[in-house]
Amino acid sequence: xxxxxxxxxxxxxxxxxxxVASIASGAMDWTRxxxxxxxxxxxxxxxAVRTTVHDMxxxxxxxxxxxxxxxxxxxxxTYGSVDLPGKLAGLEGQPIVERLRxxxxxxxxxxxxxxxxxxxxxxxxxxxxxxTVVALTLGTGVGSGVVVDGEVWPPGExxxxxxxxxxxxxxxxRTCLCGNRGCPETILGEVSVGGExxxxxxRGAPSxxxxxxxxxxxxxxRDLLNGVRLSDPICRAIFDRWVGALSALAVSIVHxxxxxxxxxxxxxxxxxxxxxxxxxxxxxxxxxxxxxxxxVVIARATLGPSAGAAGAALFAxxxxxxxx
Length: 324
Prior knowledge:
The protein is of the alpha/beta class.
């Protein structure tokens, strides 16, 4: 009886943590989270990956046969993040692939975090068995990815997600980190939501709820939801605009990619019961498709915070097989 091949590891790099997933025989067999305690740098990534692989070798008696790394920004699969405006300073321009490969002596690939999450959900999560899967990750910003027949789209070395967080949905809107104006990220992202709440709080807008929150500049989507639950008019208006922007983005995705499912993930997806029905109703009314009553499935992601790490591992597993 032949021995099972060593697993493939996926690492999803965030601002204060690195999420890890192990894929063996096409299934996710364990996950973990490594707290970095600060904005991740290239050295943080190397240390987290090295520690995990060494722990496996010493504790489990098995190493990893390949590594996939999920990174924000524009990503080159054989290098790392090549353009990363305003996010995780210290990763942009870092030859993560080369450094890890030289350090550990095993194959390494990178891809964009939105694409990684989409691949994880398409193969192991909410999009299993669906021809075309689009995933949106709603967190600090808006990540996105498209998977067609189980493979990340578009093909090639530049694995940058689908860029749905950076199309224009508000003409003349706020300037985004990418340089465009009116991107979904400038409305839907955690940073943008928190900034809008903070602006109203500092201006003394008529909101007893906002006035009662600490003036420490740490407001976010959870605060917005709490305000909505308490029927605060300012929070209700911001939330309605947020739902409207997400709905408009979903319609645009239908028109561009014609997916079988749109999967909503990221930290904000925890509140999906509060907004998904409204998004579904809007898409049902305004999305152009044939036949007109063909349903558009919009669902919450099922892999949770492990989606990006799982997708990175799956991408590496596919890449090593293709290179064999």
